[in-house]
Amino acid sequence: MQGLTVLAPFVGILSLIIAWLIFGYVKKQPNGSPLMQELEDQIHKGAMTFLKREYTILIFFIGIVFLLLGFGVAWRTAIAFVTGALCSMVAGYSGMTAATRGNSRTAEAANKSGQAKALNVSYFAGSVMGLAVAGLGLLGLGFWFWVWGGSPETAQYINGFAMGASSIALFARVGGGVYTKAADVGADLVGKVEAGIPEDDPRNPGVIADNVGDNVGDIAGMGADIFESFVGSVIATIAIGATLTITPEFLANFPVLQGLAPEAIKLKYMAMPILVVMAGLLSSFVGVFSIKLFQSGNPAGALRYTTFVAAIVFVILTIIITNSLGMPWGCFWAIVSGLLCGIAIGLLAEYYTSGPPIRRIAGQSETGAATVIIAGLAVGMVSTWLPMLGICVAIFIGFKAAGIYGIGLSAVGMLATVGATMTVDAYGPIADNAGGISEMSELGPETRKITDSLDALGNTTAAIGKGFAIGSAALTALALFVAYTQAVGLEIIDIKNPMVVIGVFIGGMVPMVCAALTMTSVGKAAFSIVEEIRRQFREIPGLLEGKEGAKPDPATCVDIATTAALKEMVLPGLVAVLTPVVVGFVLGPETLGGMLLGATSMGAFLALFMANAGGAWDNAKKYIEEGNFGGKGSDNHKAAVVGDTVGDPFKDTSGPAMNILIKLMSVVSLVIAPILAGWAGLF
Amino acid sequence: MQGLTVLAPFVGILSLIIAWLIFGYVKKQPNGSPLMQELEDQIHKGAMTFLKREYTILIFFIGIVFLLLGFGVAWRTAIAFVTGALCSMVAGYSGMTAATRGNSRTAEAANKSGQAKALNVSYFAGSVMGLAVAGLGLLGLGFWFWVWGGSPETAQYINGFAMGASSIALFARVGGGVYTKAADVGADLVGKVEAGIPEDDPRNPGVIADNVGDNVGDIAGMGADIFESFVGSVIATIAIGATLTITPEFLANFPVLQGLAPEAIKLKYMAMPILVVMAGLLSSFVGVFSIKLFQSGNPAGALRYTTFVAAIVFVILTIIITNSLGMPWGCFWAIVSGLLCGIAIGLLAEYYTSGPPIRRIAGQSETGAATVIIAGLAVGMVSTWLPMLGICVAIFIGFKAAGIYGIGLSAVGMLATVGATMTVDAYGPIADNAGGISEMSELGPETRKITDSLDALGNTTAAIGKGFAIGSAALTALALFVAYTQAVGLEIIDIKNPMVVIGVFIGGMVPMVCAALTMTSVGKAAFSIVEEIRRQFREIPGLLEGKEGAKPDPATCVDIATTAALKEMVLPGLVAVLTPVVVGFVLGPETLGGMLLGATSMGAFLALFMANAGGAWDNAKKYIEEGNFGGKGSDNHKAAVVGDTVGDPFKDTSGPAMNILIKLMSVVSLVIAPILAGWAGLF
Question: Which residues neighbour B334 within 8 Å (Cβ) at sequence distance 6 or greater?
């Protein structure tokens, strides 16, 4: 059975072929009027401009880290690092291409063929990202696993792949997060507030940048985030498997392993996560194509059912794998605990950003903006504990069922069907863009109704997706943390040692500081967009009045947002990469262990707090816009808009940045663990 | 030398006598016109009403916990618990009495004798709280240390004293915090915003409640908080000393101890903190009376110099103690590290709530309330890392200089001169009240100028005091955590064990949830005040128009705020007390150890975040009111007011509640440690 791991790269390639064929299918769909085609083109070009400029900067970063890793750690690790980074970049590029081609086609499908077809087109356009993420991840992991064989050193080299994925993810999330919110806030401030023209009005030069931002943040950023979790969870589990200590007590617990040589057991343990994600990807194929069965019904149900189908197939395949591979059944339960935890956290995120919490926030608008803010902050804070409890339960079950290895498996279980779940995530911004295009190209009210309903559904899937991304990031960071503690060769990391306590405190600082930096960045970047839009309204004659032939210049807005976002991603990136290195070498590997735990805890809490508070403010505003508490334009609405504006960087920039931060710091530590082993720090 | 500990209760009593004499001096001062006397009386009665009602509820709580501790732990612990609670209550009562008698006398001194005399009266009125806190703490600690002798069991029983102090502190901080902000927000919302009358206008029925709130929050709440830190740090250090393992390596490190029996060494280590706080209290006497030398000069300098005088005398006495007691010199450096860390954290809090950060926040008012909020949140987040680094440095120095015992000593060093620092803290609300009374009784502009400048200085000392309170809480919680890990008899608490990781995560939940609960409570309580003030304006004929004879009924506002505050303190209180007990018995003492560390870290970060963000918003608003960015009444000012309103529960309710939370959970764990020893949890 474990010989099947050689098939992993091929399943990965199969996924890419399917994604390619789906992309062909999407491109074949009609993309509407010349105006729609032009809008599509502008968004596409804006997105590609951003990616190209981002990747140009990243090439330097990758080159430098490649050399540092090669000379400092191992050349194989350095090569794996480059491939991890490239895979993440290719996944982002593929997903963005499909998404920015799918938007106008979704609008046209809504216009000509109705809701079922529009759902079909947007879903399949999103699936390109889902399948690319899972396919490239499995291709890279499987390839290196095959090249280097399943030995403990493999675990050490392959960590580089995860670090490559993490580095790209950080820049994609932070840069993308700053871009999307700067464009959004900038376009709204001048357009809606100052000039009094509607959202997505074609006269507004910032609208294209705003639509580009949806893709940059929610497709490229989210995709890189999930790609990193996917790869990180598998690699952590391989690393934990590779460093298992097979004692007689261990064997006594697992009769199924008795009689096997320790090396053989380790190989099984290292092969298991690869097989599990293979099964997950195969299940995702089934899940993705099952949309054909559901697309004519309720769209919300259809999306949900595709992930359920993938999950059920996955559970069946996992039973077969556990049995055929001769693994203890505890491994199966660990996987299931992660799968269920992922679903639970997603649903909790949906709860806290809808229903009673948002009605409570909306009600606070009666006494003004301040009480809206206080209520939203309180909702965000209180929303952290149940998801964290869910993660604790997953850790507990994973650990009790399969030891520390179970924690890795639990993360793998959460992420294995990522081909299907990421498809749903990527669907959201495509539907959002389709709505924008139908508004700007003035399609009829019937079409608007369809794109609006698909867009609204996208907001729900986005909330669930964000919760899932945080949960998987926390569990992956924890699995990487466990892998680090094994790899660095410390028998214990004792919190009775004050140096470990210091580590936990330092760990808490990094998310706090990075959250503050990214929030401030959005403000700065938005300000430069505001100035550019104001300039265009002032200098382009007839633009604001909507005169024939007066056209905005969206490209400069795209350019400004790109420059600002890329500039702002550098400092948080350096903080994240350098802190573990400095702490590890100056204060020693034990303090670094404490730091990772402190950072994971603080980062996960802040991510949940900010994502849920932001989502709740957003939906409280929408709830008022539906006519409650005075409706649109009332003082209550204005108070709710303040909450929504505060929530923007919370939920789309700083909150998501936490996901990457905690994984990146763990993976950097894991990569430098071999050098740190035996080192005691400078004091 | 260590025999001098028998003098501790007498030094404590001496402090109380001095406080009593000072109170006599304050009461002898003229308290102005009949109107001023009436206002003083109303505030005094309101404060006493709150205390009486609060203490009545607390008596039940104390009775129940007394029985639980008696039957569950030890009767001596239970008795010590009751005395700790009573000492805290007496300290709160004394301080409140002096403060509410000092306010009108300060106003009258400003009116008749000028600034120096006004400073003198308010400072000495505040010193009653400072000396009561330190005196009662030393009396209780010294008394029990003398009764039970310096044996390891003493440490166990005396923990009850700290738990008593903590329990009262929680209710005083949460109840007081809710009270003060509910009254403040309620009075402002109806008075300033709806009715358009100035702050502190005598027509507003909520103004007395607001002035009562200043005392309830910043005197009783702050005093109970500092009392708890003071007692907790000493007891933690005694407990660590009592559970030292005296190995040959230990002795090799400290030549000065060689040749002594292990028991003799332990006795020295247990006596040291008592002697140090005795020295601190004696130094505080010198510091407090040194105000006479400085009062004619710059008031800000005068207050600062009194604490410096106390600190310098304290350092000299500590050198003498370390030498005479024959303790390693590392102990001295540990104490100094705590002392300096306390000063540094206070100054950092001042920096983040003034100067460039607040100008940046004020500048964001140009683009509205949302950007003010974002900027303030970012300042709050970024303001956490340097103070936390300061705590890390103190831990590091304490640990390297004197082992884990040094962490306890570091906390003791920070708190020993509390008689002087708490005096400065208590001065603030007295000056604030004096300002309110001179406004309401329409004293001349010259007088207003003096009281305004003393009030402004009070805001600075409040920021420093809040920073100091957080820093000392974090260090005390950490010392209690170390004491817990020693007392529960675990050799190690290994974060490689996932059960400890689960503990860290659970620990993070509690501060998040309690912060959310307390923020929500303020809103609810403020709402009931708003309704009452509206009712009075509506039903009392001529009140709003200021007709002769139309008087508001402030007592009902006081009553409503009291009821609401006391109701709201119950849930967070239960969460804080029960979580460690449940975690300890269900998941075991290792998980509980992880939980304490997680809670201390999260609690300290949230406390700094909320206190500094709140302070920064407050001062950004004041900065605009000084005429910058459009000045009072401008749109910018309105945006800044939103920030200030959000900051109110941040800095005066939820933030300070964190201080208590982390200490209380640690001390509850320390008290149940003997029962938990050897227990492995249910799983």
Answer: B397, B398, B401, B402, B405, B406, B407, B409, B410, B413
Cβ distance A516 to B645 less than 8 Å, yes or no, reads: no
In this prediction, the answer to ipTM > 0.90 reads: yes
Smallest Cβ–Cβ distance between B597 and the set A501, A512, A609 belongs to: A501
Cβ count near A531 (within 10 Å)? 13
**Six-digit token string for B157:** 């029983």
The residues, any chain, with a CB within 8 Å of residue B228's CB and separated by 6 or more, are B88, B162, B165, B166, B168, B169, B476, B660, B663, B664
Q: What is the 3-state secondary structure (H, E, C) of B122-176?
A: HHHHHHHHHHHHHHHHHHHHHHHHHHHCCCHHHHHHHHHHHHHHHHHHHHHHHHH
The answer to whether A393 touches A341, Cβ cutoff 8 Å, is yes
Nearest chain A residue to B387, by CA:
A509
For residue A411, which residues of chain B lie inside 8 Å, CB to CB? none
Find chain B residues with C-beta within 8 A of A189's C-beta.
367
Tally DSSP H helices, then E strands, for chain B: 23, 0
- The alpha-carbon gap from B502 to the nearest alpha carbon of chain A, in Å, equals 5
**Contact (Cβ atoms closer than 8 angstroms) between residue B389 and residue B506:** no
Which among A377, A400, A410, A641 is the top mutation candidate for probing chain B, defined by the most B β-carbons within 10 Å of its own β-carbon?
Answer: A377
Give the other-Cβ count within 10 Å of B38's Cβ: 13
Write down the pLDDT at residue B260. 87
- What residues in A contact B618, CB-CB < 8 Å? none
Contact B601 A597 (CB under 8 A): no
Cα B612 from Cα B601, distance rounded (Å): 17
Residue ranges of chain B whose pLDDT lies below 50: none
End-to-end, the C-alpha distance of chain B in Å comes to 49
Distance of alpha carbon A509 from alpha carbon A595, whole angstroms: 9
Residue-wise DSSP of A141-182: HHHHHHHH-SSHHHHHHHHHHHHHHHHHHHHHHHHHHHHHHH
Q: Sign of dihedral through CA atoms A335, A336, A341, A347?
A: positive
Ramachandran bin of B421, using left for φ above 0, alpha for ψ from -120 to 50, beta for the remaining angles: alpha
List phi, psi (to 5°) of A494: -100, 120
β-sheet bridge partners, residue A494: B494
Cβ within 8 Å, pair A407-B498: yes
Where b means 16+ CB within 10 Å and e means fewer, B581-609 reads bebbbebbbbbbbbbbbbbbbbbbbbbbb
Cβ–Cβ < 8 Å for B128, B26: yes
Q: b/e per residue, B544-574, with b = 16+ CB within 10 A?
A: beeeeeeebbbebbbbbbbebbbebbeebbe
Interface probe for A, chosen from B494, B506, B682 (most Cβ of A below 10 Å), is B494
- Cα–Cα distance for residue pair A294/A306, rounded to 1 Å: 8
Taking CB atoms and an 8 Å limit, are B490 and A512 in contact across chains?
no
* Of the listed ranges A17-21, A97-101, A558-562, the one predicted with least confidence: A558-562
Mutant choice from B496, B590, B602, B653 vs A, greatest count of A C-beta within 10 A: B496
Strand-pairing partners, residue B494, are A494
A194-240 per-position pLDDT tens digit: 777 887 787 888 888 888 888 888 899 999 999 999 999 999 999 99
C-alpha A400, offset from chain centre: 29
3-state secondary structure of A494: strand
For B596-631, write each residue's pLDDT tens digit: 999 999 999 999 999 999 999 999 999 999 899 999
Pull the structure tokens for residue A244.
Answer: 């298992």
Look at residue A679 and give its three-state secondary structure: coil
Of A370, A498, A512, the CB nearest to B385: A512
B-chain CB neighbours of A382 within 8 Å are 512-513, 516-517
Question: Which burial class, exposed, middle or buried, applies to B189 when counting CB atoms under 10 A from its CB (0-12, 13-18, 19+)?
Answer: buried
